[in-house]
Amino acid sequence: MSSTRPELRLPKMPKGLRAPFRIPFLRTLGPGSVSSLLKIALDVAYVLLMFITAVLLLVLLASIFIPLTDLNITVSNDSGGTQQPLTRPLLLFGVGALTAYFGGFLLILRNLRMIFRTLTIGDPFRPENVRRLRQIGLILAVVTGGVWLVQGLVAARLAPGVMDSQGVGELLTPVFSVLVVFVLAEVFKEGARLRRESELTI
C-alpha cells in the first residue's frame, strides 16, 4: 500500500512581478549611474571650495601687512554682545582657523572625488580606496577637534558669557561620522581582499 504526499504548490506571481523591481536609469555603479551624477556634483563643489580656500589664503597673507588702527570686532548673540579690539594675532588666528577649516574639507572632497571615480567605472574595491577613506576619517577627526577647540578658546577668551563652548554631547554626531568612515574603510579593505583572492583563484 503506497501513500503519496500532497504536493505543495505556491501560487504563481504575475508575470510582471517575477523579476525584482528595478529602474533602469537609476543604476548605482558605472557610467551614467547615480555615482557619476554625484561625481559631477563633487567636482563642482571641489572647484568652488578650492576658490574659497584660495581667497582665504590671500586674505591670510594680506592680514600680515594691512594696518589695524582703531578696528574692533563685535561678538553678539540674542541677549547682547561684546566688543574687542581687533589685533593682528587675533586676525591671523581667525582667518587661519577658517582657512584650515575649508582646507580640511577640500582634502576630504579630493579623496571623495577619487573614490567616486572608481564607482563610476564600476570598480570600487581598490586598495587605494581604503587609504582614501582612512584619510577622510582622519581629516574629519582633526577638523572636528579643531572646531571644538577653537570655539572653546573663543568662548573663554574673546567672548566670555556671550558665546558658549561646545559640550561633549555636541561631539557625538561628528565622532559617530568619523567611526562610520573608518568602518567603511575596513569594509572596502575586506572587499579588496576578497577580490584579490578571487582573481588569484581564477
Automatic annotation (TrEMBL):
Q: Write out the entry's keywords from A to Z.
A: Membrane, Transmembrane, Transmembrane helix
Segments traversing the membrane? 44-66, 86-109, 136-159, 171-188
Q: Does the keyword Transmembrane apply?
A: yes
Question: Does the record bear Ubl conjugation in its keywords?
Answer: no
Superkingdom, taxonomy of origin? Bacteria
Report the InterPro entries cross-referenced here: DUF2975
Protein name per the record: DUF2975 domain-containing protein
What is the originating organism of this protein?
Brevundimonas staleyi
